[in-house]
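Work through what follows:
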Amino acid sequence: MFTRREILGQSARALLLVPAMNLRLGRLSSENQGLSLAARPAPQVSDDEFLDELQRALFLFFWEQVGPTSGQVKNRALATGNDTRTVSSIAATGFGLTALCIGHKRGYGDPSQIQARVTTTLSFLLNRLPTVNGFFYHFIDMNTGARVWNCEVSSIDTSLLLCGVLTCRQYFQDAQIRSMASEIYNRVNWQWMLNGGQTFSMGWTPEKNFISARWNKYSELMMIYLLGIGSTTDPVPASSWEAFARPSSTYQGLTYITGRTPLFVHQYSHAWYDFRNRQDKYADYFNNSVTATKAHKLFCLSLEPEFKDYEENLWGITASDSAKGYTAWGGPPVIGQIDGSVVPCAAGGSLPFVPADCIAVLRKIRVQYPQAWQRYGFVDAFNPLTNWYSPDVIGIDVGITMLMAENQRSSFVWNTFMANPEAESSFRAVGLK
């Protein structure tokens, strides 16, 4: 069973490919536009310089592809820019709020403009965006805030948003930002999303009430439980941490907790929660993601007899665009109809887990596949065997690469987010020592 991408009886593939509407884009100053490594070939720069150039390009997405009066980040956009679609994903906005903190810290844009964008975004979330018991609809119109595609009120996507909200609360020492961020988090009714059970529902719709599928098996779900347990206004019991299953699998001698899920499930909670040097009675979750990434690399290399492009420095398949549309794929075991495509955010999202291997993949793509690099960094996916390149980038895929690159470089997102008292208290409550 896959996650939020395949619920409500309509696949995420259909959701992500809805026709576009018009949008007038805001932009950074000219000196921050058109960033590229063309002037400095990737082999001649250090890993840190390479990741910095990548992050500058990724930051442009979160600056340009937003509602100018709402701060809500597009679900997807053309990799070359000048996109006219107006559907926003609240998960992409959560990544985007964190990206604004990174950009402010690293000087990727005017600091006052970045802080003003954060204020605009939080104000829209708090005062204009519809919620149900504090939870947000998955997809909205980025200009009006109206629900689109009859999507669900989403527990996981609200959690991704809240992680960005709380990162801003901790980073910006501004009374208005801190107050709005606290109110957005504190009004969430976590007990409601349990729907009488021990595990969270995946969501709710006004047409069909609660979705029957639950977050009951290890995946990116850890953030939902930690946010709910850490709440000071409507917490769920710490015993909820015990309620989801942690199945294990062994691949080529590597044993780790996993399900039949794409690689991103081992990345998302780790973008904000710092699981390093922590473990509960079940696992060291950071090392578990290290093992999962190593197993995924071995899995890709095992496909080389069929897909000759997969090799030591070119691998990585996770939920993404494909030549046939959006799909959840990867392994081990084989998930979906793998065709030789490479998904850059698979390596990008695992940068802190196996940094040397992941950086090598991103460098190789940058140097040997120039069509895979556009205005916002890497396209969502490409196939070296068929010369297919996705025309788009996707907000959550840009986001996981942006945050994990920063964590690999400086641990900034981890250090900032974990300074929220609710984050540390939830770790203590569930026995992460």
